[in-house]
Amino acid sequence: xxxxxxxxxxTAEGGxxxxxxxxxxxxxxxxxxxxxxxxxxxxxxNESFIVSGLDKAEDSWRSDEAPRIHERRLARLLDVSHFRxxxxxxxxxxxxxxxxxxPLMHSCPECTELQRHRDFNPPAGKSVCGTxxxxxxxxxxxxxxxxxxxxxxxxxxxxxxxVERGATTTDRCDxxxxxxxxxxxxxxxxxxxxxxxxxxxxxxxxxxxxxNALKDLGLKCQGTRPWLGASASTKGCGLPLRTLQRGSSxxxxxxxxxxxxxxxxxxxxxxxxxxxxxxLREYDNREHVEIYLKGVFKGQCPLPLDEVMALLxxxxxxxxxGEAAPTFDHRYRALRNxxxxxxxxxxxxxxxxxxxxxxxETPLGDQSVLAPLGVTNPMLVKKLREVRALKAFTRxxxxxxxxxxxxxxxxxxxxxWLPAMEVRGEGVFLRLDxxxxxxxxKATAVAARTERIRTAHQRVLDQRAGDASQxxxxxxxxxxxxxxxxxxxxxxxxxxxxxxxxxxxxERLYTADDMAGVLVYTATSDSAGSLGGLVAQGEPELxxxxxxxxxxxxxxxxxxxxxxxTEVSGTGGTNLAACHxxxxxxxxxxxxxxxLLDRALLVGTPDDAHVGFFGDVLNH
Length: 620
Description:
This protein is α+β, with helices and mostly antiparallel strands. Helices cover 23% and strands 20% of the residues.
């Protein structure tokens, strides 16, 4: 069932909740992680707000409306003790999530005045001009820097740039800013800003989105963080500012991390030692662990000592080998490695209680029918639980990057919890045959196509890092691009043949020198979650037909021959033969933002069919 909608409490500009004037809007719980998380902008009716931070002083998420959830592996990775669901309540007397008005600059379409919201003297509880009594319009433009700070667009500097370049606030005139639209076009040229001081001519907003437009005015980021309110300490940032539209996706992008609940942490029970694992990890000796537990629980430990030691050992198995202080990326990769091992080995339902949250079984059909396709050992994931946590957020993030940098934390102080969503579903896991995959990925033509994608992606990562020596290496390999594209065509095929909307299916890739697997699963909180339909698609004979149909469908694209023969595709050239008419998916379904795709590695090219891993399928 879909949880009750989260209620949002707006706050006054100074950060004090308007208890006597509650204004509310509703979003789904999942949107509070993926779309309207901390630091994001949200439009409610004709007004605009920013979601408040998680600091205790802000009290953005009330604990009585935000239940705790636990996922040991992910909590350890993110260095927190637990997670909290977004607050949700049908009771109008409760706050839900709090927000603040932003941007503060508003304009009146009647008198054309452009000023801060409070200067219009709106009636209590309304956002209207106190003189004209028409709805105020929040500023369409904001400015942000790559470090994650957000501020008002500097309209005064923009109007006076021709006569007082580099002026400070002490140089400000006494005029009144005005904003109007000429109505001639829908471009920025038709949005006109002027000042009644008449020292500067009327100017349009054209050119305000140039990369150096604000830098040329001598303006730099001041480190403003409006989601934390007036109490947030502001330090000059100094980075260049970029103009953005208030509703642009570049204003806020979440940094999400997820993990599947796998044994021995998937038995469905609450963790009685949730607050003690950090201390227990410091002990390698069984006797020391026993002494600690006796001291804390007075001899009445809720878990047997053998089970505690087994859980500690299982945690240490996920630590990367050979690294005293592994990086976050290495630890996240180790978490995926352990999931891959569990998906391969399975977890039969008959051996566990009904509360087991991870059930993965071998299909009953003859798996040899998949051998000609180069696919091996499919597994039916009849039950799975995934926790997706909002780790941080970015602004001005490159949509073609698979890594996160310059992350902005969700609070101004250290927090021992993070916002998260808990979803349950089902899926199909399959692997590619290493004996066939190895020779294929060493082929010259395959390596050449993959190298073009890798080079383009590395260029993007280098540009984003600023210093190529500090850039994250691109994860592109032949098997990675192959598995990624295969997952996309399977999702598209199941959305056509099995009745699942593509947005209800999701990929999870397991690719490395010793991994070549993909999990396609449903993990949604609505009716497309776990009804058994997707698991049925994993039976070998049906899976064989699905793969053959998906590969044949990928052979042709309505944009061919342009799509197949293009030298580069996607922003930055991070795709080859891939477009929205053939293999791209809804953003929520793809782990890599619809980049690093090439269907030629599936089906081959008109000049060389052997480039495609499934090229033989098309000939039989």
